[in-house]
Specification:
This protein is an alpha+beta fold. Among the domains are: 93 residues, no CATH class; 120 residues, no CATH class. 51% of the residues lie in helices and 13% in strands. The chain has 29 helices and 22 strands. A hairpin with a 3-residue loop joins strand 15 and strand 16.
Length: 770
């Protein structure tokens, strides 16, 4: 009865109410005005994808498997970034994505706060400490910076980390497979969220947590045995990937054919590494400017701002060094100290002398941006600072040795920065730019830069002094732990809110009249012709947004052969680092004609490109060439696409025609053009090859009169269908077998996981009753 009293009920509800109100306050403009949330990558990349999926679902009642509007056609469902099957992505299927983005982000923000709160409670932290950690975790500069960047998949991955650790913490304490099953379900959700690199790092951290050996957090907790540890880890990992198989298997196939296939170069893998100098921004968050107002100056690549923004507030850095006086303290803090150190060690990337060895480890050679592991630094610091606050509330705490080192070093840095910016303004800023910039600072908003840097120095100095004062007053008994804990929650909220609130912005989805005029003149299907945009009016992925077939596109996952083909057409060397096919300065080159490029947008006008090669045509003869020689052969005068189609290696027996006429009499007519189904009428007087200006990809099948025909890859990357003499109606359809197999695996693992969870629950209940 005691727990049901109004006072106790209020004590339980109040923390959750504070969390929800804080979230609503941050996103109040989205909720009150109904405006759309801004995110740079959401506007440029995710919105066109989500809009296409939403419209296709509304008109066809099914999900689209193929994207005919970017990169001259590309697989859609295999692209994990779209998070087709992510359970919490349901809002994007119920309402227009520009509206769904704000509400979905708010939902994830609230859930992230609750998941962190739940994990801290599982570590037996008191409610103020849980609120403190939750606030620092979700309001951190790293998360909010990625939110401003519009990294939808990052948001959908980040929030699940504390929930995974919540179940794994229960597992290592209670040795219950049921909790390992629950953690596997959450891992599956995270993978489906669409950011493999975050899921990979989470898997590493959670595996290390299990390996730490059970880490009991309370008396009477069971120590997990070696066998139980291995069994729980296997269940956790296998179930997570099996649940996500519907996405993982198609993505794996896509990845092997993309520029990421076989791994990436060391240069690419260490792109956007965290420079040790950037640790200064962990204390002075705007010392290098801010991306929201164009003052970011350290690098010309403004997106480096959110990839290196590890600010979690000043007070969490103090509380990080608070330890318990009890010799029987839990080993959980030890793990998170290791996690913080390890994440920083890996984030340094190319600035880490050991990273060439790390690059060779499984997984690390497949991802770029080592600085993205900083989310584990944020997680570790916010957990440890919450535990530090909890020790203060329980009593028996003391500053660790690192506390005084951090205080002295940070105090000296802040003092020098404060005095320098006031007394030696010119010399201070000149030295700062000279020593910390990667190049000239002229690209930044110089008119605002001085105020931005001065403001962050003054604010951080004030926060540092206030936090240190409160800790010293607490240590000498001048204030009570309860007062300190409440003040700590308020300080971390104010500190982080004043920094990250500019990251939550609204966006007006407006298309200029000039752009609408140009779009109205563009072809709508690839059968009519494809479009090259060389105009500032258009963004790279506008082909998908406005539904015209574009040769270009932006995506971290692009088919390697397509990149090689386009670069060769522009007389450029191969480059596996390409993620943005934006510049096509030679749209009338020979290879571009094979892509059926017929329109060029330049200077606000639509120009017609001469192209003597139709969308689909018949070729009498096929030859073979080594794959590495095909592009150079196709660029030569020796290659006539009307007379010969070139295959990589030896086509199937009977298909390579050597003794045939130099031309074929026939015709091709497109009867229907759809994203996943193309129907043509073909007639010819001799056996021939039907060559189409469509990208070849596994899963495309052809049928003629009920007879299946192989869709071959010819002319390096195009679809080719062998046809016999007659009048045919040929239908090409796209069927993804990895998706079908993955869907079966996901469904089976879902049922198996639920059955295992229920069985473990019944078994534990039986043991408890006996």
């Amino acid at each position: 009865m005691k727990d049901s009293t109004p006072a106790n009920w209020a004590a339980k509800v109040a923390p959750h109410a504070v969390i929800v109100l804080g979230s609503f306050f941050l996103f109040r403009e989205i909720l009150v005005t109904g405006k759309c949330l801004y995110g740079s990558d959401f506007v440029l990349q995710f919105y066109p994808w989500k809009k296409f999926v939403f419209d296709h679902l509304q008109s066809h009642g099914s999900l689209p498997f193929w994207n005919p509007y970017l990169f001259s056609g590309s697989p859609l469902i295999p692209n994990i970034q779209l998070s087709f099957f992510y359970p919490l992505g349901f809002l994007y299927y119920l309402m227009p994505p520009d509206i769904a983005y704000g509400y979905s982000t708010l939902l994830h923000f609230i859930l992230g706060l609750f998941f962190m709160y739940l994990f801290m409670r599982s570590l037996e932290a008191r409610r103020p400490a849980c609120i403190f950690s939750s606030t620092a975790f979700m309001f951190s500069g790293y998360f909010m910076g990625h939110l401003y960047a519009g990294h939808l998949s990052f948001v959908q991955n980040y929030i699940w980390i504390p929930l995974i650790f919540y179940f794994l913490n229960r597992f290592v304490n209670e040795a219950s497979i049921r909790d390992a099953v629950a953690a596997g379900f959450v891992l599956g959700f995270q993978i489906l969220g669409g950011f493999p690199q975050i899921a990979f790092y989470t898997l590493l951290a959670s595996s290390l947590f299990i390996l730490f050996g059970g880490v009991p957090t309370h008396r009477g907790g069971k120590r997990v045995s070696l066998f139980q540890m291995g069994a729980g880890w296997a269940v956790f990992v296998f179930l997570g990937f099996a649940l996500a198989a519907v996405q993982v298997l198609p993505t794996y196939e896509f990845t092997t054919l993309s520029t990421r296939g076989g791994g990436i170069s060391y240069e690419m893998a260490t792109y956007e590494s965290l420079h040790p100098k950037e640790l200064l921004a962990f204390l002075l968050p705007d010392i290098y400017g801010n991306a929201t107002d164009g003052t970011y100056w350290r690098s010309r690549e403004f997106w480096h701002f959110w990839e290196s923004c590890g600010y979690v507030g000043v007070l969490p850095l103090f509380l990080f060094f608070i330890k318990s006086q009890s010799p029987r303290a839990s080993r959980v803090p030890v793990f998170f100290v290791v996690l913080v150190g390890l994440s920083l060690f890996l984030a340094f990337g190319k600035y880490n002398p050991l990273y060439p060895l790390i690059y060779k480890l499984p997984g690390f050679g497949s991802f770029r941006l080592p600085a993205q592991i900083l989310f584990l630094y944020v997680f570790g610091v916010t957990v440890l600072s919450g535990l530090g606050l909890n020790r203060i509330m329980e009593g028996g705490w003391k500053p660790a040795r690192g506390f005084w080192i951090f205080t002295a070093v940070s105090g000296l840095l802040l003092g020098v920065a404060l005095l320098g910016s006031i007394l030696f303004r010119f010399e201070f800023f000149l030295t700062l730019f000279r020593e910390f910039s990667e190049g000239p600072v002229m690209h930044a908003n110089l008119s605002m830069l001085h105020d931005r840097i001065s403001s962050t120095i003054q604010k951080s100095s004030l926060m540092f002094s206030l936090c240190l004062l409160l800790i010293l007053l607490l240590k000498h008994g001048k204030i009570q732990p309860l007062f300190f804990s409440l003040a700590a929650c308020l300080i971390v909220f104010v500190d982080l809110y004043t920094f990250v609130s500019p990251f939550v912005r609204t966006h007006e989805w407006v298309t200029s009249a000039e752009k609408e005029r140009v779009v109205s003149k563009l072809f709508k299907t690839a059968a009519m012709g494809r479009v090259v945009t060389m105009d500032s009016l258009f963004d790279t992925n506008d082909g998908l947004r406005y539904r015209f077939p574009s040769v270009q596109g932006y995506d971290p996952l692009i088919l390697k052969k397509y990149v090689d083909f386009v670069l060769a057409s522009q007389n450029l060397p191969p480059n596996d680092h390409v993620v943005n096919l934006q510049e096509i300065p030679l749209p009338e080159e020979k290879l571009m004609k094979l892509l059926n490029a017929r329109q060029l947008v330049s200077a606000g006008q639509v120009e017609w490109l001469e192209n003597g090669i139709p969308y689909a045509f018949l070729v009498p003869k096929g030859i073979e060439k080594p794959e590495e020689e095909i592009l150079s052969f196709m660029k030569s005068e020796e290659f006539d696409p009307r007379k010969v189609v070139v295959f990589a290696g030896q086509p199937k027996q009977g298909l390579l025609q050597r003794d045939t006429p130099s031309s074929v009499i026939g015709s091709c007519e497109v009867l229907k053009y759809g994203a996943e189904e193309i129907r043509l009428r073909v007639s010819c007087d001799h056996p021939a090859y039907l060559v189409m200006s469509e990208i070849w990809y596994p899963g495309w099948v052809a049928s003629a009169g009920g007879k299946k025909e192989e869709v071959m890859a010819g002319n390096y990357l195009f679809r080719v269908v062998p046809v016999e003499p007659d009048n045919h109606e040929i239908t090409l359809t796209f069927v993804s077998w990895p998706f079908r197999i993955g869907a079966g695996v996901s469904l089976a693992s879902l049922l198996a996981g639920l059955c295992l969870w229920r069985h473990c629950r019944r078994r534990e209940a039986f043991k408890g009753a006996s």
